[in-house]
UniProtKB/TrEMBL annotation:
The gene is gb14548. Residues 1-23 form the signal peptide. GO terms for molecular function: ATP binding; protein serine/threonine kinase activity; transmembrane receptor protein tyrosine kinase activity. It is a single-pass type I membrane protein. It comes from the Eukaryota. This is Malectin-like domain-containing protein. Keywords: ATP-binding, Glycoprotein, Kinase, Membrane, Nucleotide-binding, Serine/threonine-protein kinase, Signal, Transferase, Transmembrane, Transmembrane helix. InterPro entries: ANXUR1/2-like, Malectin-like_Carb-bd_dom. Residues 38-351 form the Malectin-like domain. The lineage of its organism: Eukaryota, Viridiplantae, Streptophyta, Embryophyta, Tracheophyta. It is found in: Membrane. Pfam families: Malectin_like.
Length: 375
């Protein structure tokens, strides 16, 4: 239940593999136009280790501060080593064309100036939606065992509008801070809000509204390594994490890359290139070749830190990339979410029309499981 305005988005990538195919594809790469990056607390622009250029925010109020310590695990000093610190509510306004955007907030918990890391506690709102409430970046970083945190949201900006991002300390004893803000316009059909999404464990599909805001919870490259923002397709700068830390127990299955003679085909009848890069569709994890063994176990990913009370959209990106799986009925499997059937008899070759042809089904769920493929 609970159609919260903020719909958490859980991106889960499952790549299954099979046969051949050819055809070079047209790159639908969006222009980098319209992208905004702010290195908060910096007075001049700077380039991060991925080559992204970040502007300073000297015109903002709040206090510009340097982090007190550079954690060796920081991937890049920009935008993390400077912050904008707010004792009271502050709103950034960014001009953005109407449509969906990714809004990413970058946080590096540290002491800033005379404020200790432990006193940071704040909320963030944008587009009329609460994105973070009583956010304790230190606590979150400790829980995730990370030095820095990126929170990614997808918002639909209404016509002739701007994105207003508001930081509010939780009390007068607390403060808000932010190290970086990134806005990346997204293709309008990156996911389809016009079609209701099947709801796992329930007969009725879940309608998605055009103005629904999403938070990305997980985006995994199954069977492959992490994909850094600079290696994402269409300059969307998404991060795709490796999936192996999330696999339950010893049932790891078999991870593999595409056969060398398989070409991943993007195009009108399958997924567009911006759906996911080749490094995502070109790796997969299967249960292995032995049917009798596979009947005796489930290949399961466990995704922790999911809050109850929200709907979660689960998207599975599928592409058969492994010989000899070239025909329907050779590799068929069921998908369960939280022990409930989300999808019966998935046959990627049949869905995609052949080896190397992608399919990105969508699924939704509340506190329980998801549904089944769309487009
Ligand atoms: C913010 O609050 C802290 C703690 O109360 C105080 O030391 C600091 O001077 C304040 N900064 C500004 C700019 O008001
Ligand atoms: C934030 O979390 C850290 C780590 O758990 C804790 O030490 C700190 O007191 C918390 N701060 C607030 C304001 O709750
Ligand atoms: C954004 O919302 C408007 C109406 O509010 C809708 O017409 C449009 O299709 C939405 N855009 C996307 C990409 O969902
Ligand atoms: C591609 O390679 C596989 C072996 O890895 C082979 O079985 C298959 O016939 C090859 N397909 C084409 C079209 O060359
Ligand atoms: C799924 O079922 C197993 C076995 O009954 C149980 O241990 C597990 O907690 C269930 N998982 C969920 C998410 O309900
Ligand atoms: C796999 O998971 C499903 C859903 O929880 C369950 O019904 C089935 O018994 C499991 N199979 C095995 C072999 O554990």
């Amino acid at each position: 239940m609970a159609s919260a305005t903020l719909l958490r988005r859980l991106l889960l990538l499952i790549l299954v593999a099979t046969s051949v195919a050819a055809a070079a594809s047209v790159d639908v790469t969006s222009a980098v136009a319209g992208q905004i990056r702010v290195n908060c607390g910096a007075s001049v622009s700077a380039t991060d280790s991925d080559g992204r250029e970040w502007a300073g925010d000297a015109a903002s109020s709040g206090v510009a501060a340097d982090a007190s310590y550079e954690d060796p695990s920081l991937h890049s000093a920009v935008p993390y080593m400077t912050a904008r610190v707010f004792n009271s509510t502050y709103t950034y306004s960014f001009p953005v064309a109407a449509g969906r955007v990714f809004l990413r907030l970058f946080f590096y918990p540290s002491d800033y100036g005379d404020r200790t890391a432990a006193d940071a506690l704040f909320g963030v709102a944008a587009g009329g939606v609460t994105l973070l409430r009583d956010f304790n970046a230190s606590q979150t970083a400790i829980a995730l065992d990370l030095a820095c945190i990126v929170r990614e949201f997808s918002l639909n900006v209404s016509a002739n509008s701007a994105v207003h991002v508001t930081f509010t300390p939780s009390s007068q004893h607390h403060y808000a801070f932010v190290n970086g803000i990134e806005i990346v316009p997204a293709p309008s059909d990156l996911f389809d809000t016009n079609k209701p999404v099947p709801t796992v464990g329930r007969p009725d599909p879940t309608p998605l509204r055009a103005d629904t805001a999403f938070q990305t919870m997980y985006r995994l490259n199954v069977g492959g390594a992490a994909v850094l923002p600079s290696d994402d397709s269409a300059h969307l700068y998404r991060t795709w994490a490796g999936d192996s830390p999330y696999i339950l127990g010893a049932g790891f299955g078999v991870s593999y890359g595409k056969d060398p003679n398989v070409t991943i085909q993007y195009g009108p009848s399958t997924a567009p290139r911006y759906a996911a890069p080749e490094s995502v569709y070109g790796t997969a994890r299967s249960m292995g070749p032995t049917g009798q063994v596979n009947l005796n176990y489930n290949l399961t990913w466990v995704l922790p830190y999911i809050d109850a009370g929200f709907y979660y959209l689960v998207r599975l990106h599928l592409c058969e990339i492994q010989y000899p799986i070239t025909r329907p009925n050779q590799r068929v499997f069921d998908v369960f979410v939280n022990n409930r059937t989300a999808e019966k008899a998935v046959d990627v070759v049949a869905m995609g029309g052949g080896i190397g042809r992608r399919r990105s089904p969508t699924t939704s769920s509340s506190r329980s499981p998801p549904g089944r493929p769309t487009s």
